[in-house]
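Dear colleagues,

As part of the handover before I leave the project, I'm documenting each prediction I ran so the next person doesn't have to rerun anything. This entry is a single chain, and its sequence is reproduced below.
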Amino acid sequence: MIAAYQAHCQRRVDSALEPLFEAPRPELTQLYQAMRYSVINGGKRVRPLLVYAACEALGGEPQRADGAACAVELIHAYSLVHDDLPAMDDDDLRRGQPTTHKAFDEASAILAGDGLQSLAFEVLADARRNPQNAEVRLAMISSLARAAGPAGMVGGQAIDLGSVGMKLNQAALESMHRHKTGALIEASVRLGALASARADERALKALHNYAQAIGLAFQVQDDILDVESDTATLGKTQGKDQANDKPTYPALLGLDAAKAYALELRDQALHALRPFDSAAEPLRELARYIVERRS
């Protein structure tokens, strides 16, 4: 089921993303090419899937979630472009292809990331692409800005860079990853719920608990794959975290315990969805997929 749903959502969000990369003037062609390369180059589209699935779980129509799905993928892509830069993680491979700064150059990569970040909020603010009322659009913009900024993803990256070579305890490691990885996943679920126009506080709380669990599970599984998988399967350099002496769950807990923890987080996510009916089945399948994926 999840493979078909994923393919359907990938086609939907890619179709909505493609027109965003048409350069308005010839002198901006390279910038828009670098932006497009950073987004339309594969990827699992997990965050847009969560947007659509959360919207549909509350009975919303998927077309109401197109703008939010685009926005979270644009923010995710920008973060990857900047994370891969020499000043950050210094990676040459992403999604099985040269990273943006290798395919173009460092300046183009920085500007492409900046452009993608700004474009995400432009999309959310545009009633043609995000057909919610103004109050809901503002709430969506605020949620995404907080998740992407120093209180969320950017702050998590800063903590990550400052933790190289350090031995973090589990609480500190989880705090870092709730910011770096979890915040945008939580925002994806929240934006999807808001897009449905049917979200009440009870539903938002349950979905928040679900998103917190899968956000952490996603990072635990990433750490496991960095140990167990290979570069060809991952589409990025395998073993990079260990080589850079970064704190990870397998290093802290041991590989078997890290796998058990990922399953525990999956079960927490599924438990959070108990109030929902079969319309939330894609969310349940995504929770399972996150801890079973091999890339």
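The chain has 15 helices and two strands. The mean pLDDT is 94.

All the best with the project,
I.
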